[in-house]
Amino acid sequence: MSETAALRRNMSLTEEILKAFSLCLRNRSLYPEGHTILRVSDERLVEIYNDYFQSQESWTIVILGGEIVFEKVPLNRVSLLVRPLLKAAEERGISSLSVRKGVTADEIAAFLHILTEDDPWEGGNHNQEMLNRDIHHILLQRVDIAESNYDISTDTEDARDIYASMRHALTRFFVSLFNPRSSPSLDLVHQIANRMIRSLQDDHFALISRLHTRRAPDDLVGHSINTAIIAYEAGKTMGLTPTQLTDLFLAGLLHDVGKMDIPPRFEDGIIHTSTDPRILHEHPLRGVGILQSLPTVPAAAIVVVYEHHRGWDGSGYPTPSRASGERRVNLLANIIAIANAYERYLHGTENAKPEEIPPMLIRKAGEEFEPRVLAHFITAVGMYPPGTFVKLTTNETAMVVDPNRSDPFRPVVQLLRDADGEPVDEDTQINLADRDIDTGHYIASVRTSVPSA
Ligand SMILES: [Fe+2]
Ligand SMILES: [Fe+2]
Predict the structure, then answer these.
(1) Is pLDDT above 70 for 130?
(2) Helices 83-91 & 3-30, crossing angle to 10 degrees?
(3) What does each C-alpha distance from 33 to 29, 40, 120, 134, 237 come to in angstroms?
(4) Where are the domains of the chain?
(5) Is the Cα dihedral 374, 288, 222, 239 positive or negative?
(6) Ligand that comes closest to the CA of residue 283
(7) What is the pLDDT of residue 435?
(8) How far is the CA of 192 from the centre of ligand 1 (A)?
(9) CB atoms within 10 A of CB 391
(10) I want to staple 93 with a disulfide (CB 3.0 to 4.6 A). Which of 142, 264, 354, 356 is the partner?
(11) C-alpha distances in angstroms, 447 versus 34, 288, 393, 395, 436?
C-alpha cells in the first residue's frame, strides 16, 4: 500500500474510532453500568482498533483548541460529530490520547468511566491513576488546569510543570484563534500567567532558569514565553506598577501572535513560526487584528504587539505616517523589543552565550533601542541572568541566583558541583563580589557560562 493510501486508510479508521468512542460515551448517559449495550459498543470499538492495529502499533490524537488533530491534520469534520468526547476530554485536561495495540474492552470501559467522573485524578498523577485502574494500553498527556490559589514553590519540578502548562495553554489558544468553531479564550493563559508572575515576583529562580532550556529555532510558543519572562525580570527593576508588569508579561506572551501561518503549522508538538516574508513583515499589524476582538487582552498589550519592531530612532516597522509627528515608542514596547532580541540571540541562529548578548544589544543602543531602557535592562538581567550555569575559576560549577546590580560580572551563585565534578549537597551560595580577607583577592570569578550543569 502506498504511503498516501495508508494515511487515507488510517484517517478513515480514526474517524470510525472517534465516532465509536463517542457512541460508547453517550451510551453511558443512557444505560446503567453493566448493561449489555455498553459491552457491545465497547467491543465494537475494540474491533475497529484491532483493524487499525493490523498495520500500526499505536494510535494517537492531540486535542487542541477544540479540535482533534491526527497525524498533524485537524479532523474538522469529525471534531463536530464527536463533540461530547472532545468536551469530556478537555474538561479533564486531556491534551493527547494514545492507545496501544492490545487494548481490551475492559480497559476501554475503565477509561470511559474516567471520562464521566468529575475529578478522576483528584489532583494526583493521572498516569498512576490509569495504572491503578488496570488501564495499561491507554496513555494520556494532560494540561494542568491551574487553580488561582495555587501554592508557590521554588521547586524545580514545579517550575518545569508550570512552564509546560503555559506551553500547552498558549499553544491551545493560538490554534483556537484559527478554528472557526471555537471561541478563543485567554482565561487559562491568564491563570497560569498569574502563577508565573507570583513566582517571578518572589525571585524564584527555578522558573527563570527554564529560559536556558534549548528550544527549536522556530518554536513560536517557547520564544513567546521566554520573552515574557525576560521582559518581566527587567521590568521589575524599572519601577513599573503591578498592572504595567502584568500587561508587559501578557504582551510578551502575545507579541508574535501574528507570526503564524493560517492555519498554524503545528508539527512535532510545536507551532512553527511562518517562513512567509510577507507574514513576517506584517506580523505586528496582523497581531493587532487578531487580538483586538478579544475582550480580555489589555489595551497596553495591543500597543506592544503593534510597536515591538519599531526602533527608537524611527527605524523598523510598521512605518508611522508623517502625520503622527515625533515618534515615541511605548515604554513597554521598548522593553519587549529588547527582551525579544535577547531571547532570539540566546536561542535563534546566533545561539549566543548569555555573556555575549549585552555587547550585541549595546551595538543597537540609540538606534533600535532607547539607551536608558537598555541600560536598565542590562543592569537587571546582568551578564549572567539568574538560572545561568557557570564554570568558576576554581573549576566548580554553579548556577546564578542573583545578578549583581553594581558589577554584572560578579553575581551570587549557588554551587552545584565541586572541582572534581561531584555534586555539592548543601545549599552553598557564594557572592562572587566577596574577597578573601587575607589576600584581598576575589574568592572566585566566572570563567564562562556552560549550557547545563
Ligand atoms: Fe515580532
Ligand atoms: Fe518575537
Answers:
(1) yes
(2) 80
(3) 10, 13, 17, 18, 59
(4) 3-142, 156-381, 389-450
(5) positive
(6) 1
(7) 92
(8) 22
(9) 16
(10) 142
(11) 68, 44, 5, 8, 18
| One-letter amino acid of 385 | P
Residues with CB under 5 A from ligand 2 (ion): 256, 340
Neighbours of 367 (CB within 10 A): 14
The model's pTM: 0.70
* 305 CA distance to ligand 1 middle (Å): 8
Q: How many CB atoms lie within 10 A of CB 102?
A: 13
Q: Residue 187 has which C-alpha cell? A: 482565561
For every residue of 373-434, DSSP letters joined together read HHHHHHHHH-SS-TT-EEEETTS-EEEEEE--SS-TT--EEEEEE-TTSPBP-S--EEETT-
**pLDDT tens-place string over residues 141-185:** 776 543 323 233 345 667 888 898 899 899 989 988 887 777 788
Ligand nearest to the CA of 304: 1
For residue 307, report the distance from its CA to the centre of ligand 1, in Å. Answer: 9
71: how many CB neighbours lie within 10 A of its CB? 12
Kindly give the distance from the C-alpha atom of residue 363 to the centroid of ligand 2, in angstroms, as a whole number. Answer: 19
In one letter, which amino acid is 66? Answer: G
User: In the CATH hierarchy, which fold is given to the domain comprising 156-381?
Assistant: Hypothetical protein af1432 (1.10.3210)
Place of cell 487582552: 297
pLDDT above 70 covers a percentage of the chain that reads: 92
How many other CB atoms are found less than 10 A from the CB of residue 365?
17
Least confident segment among 61-70, 93-102, 292-301, 321-330: 321-330
Distances (CA, A) of 410 to 26, 375, 407: 63, 17, 6
Give the three cell numbers for residue 165. Answer: 502548562
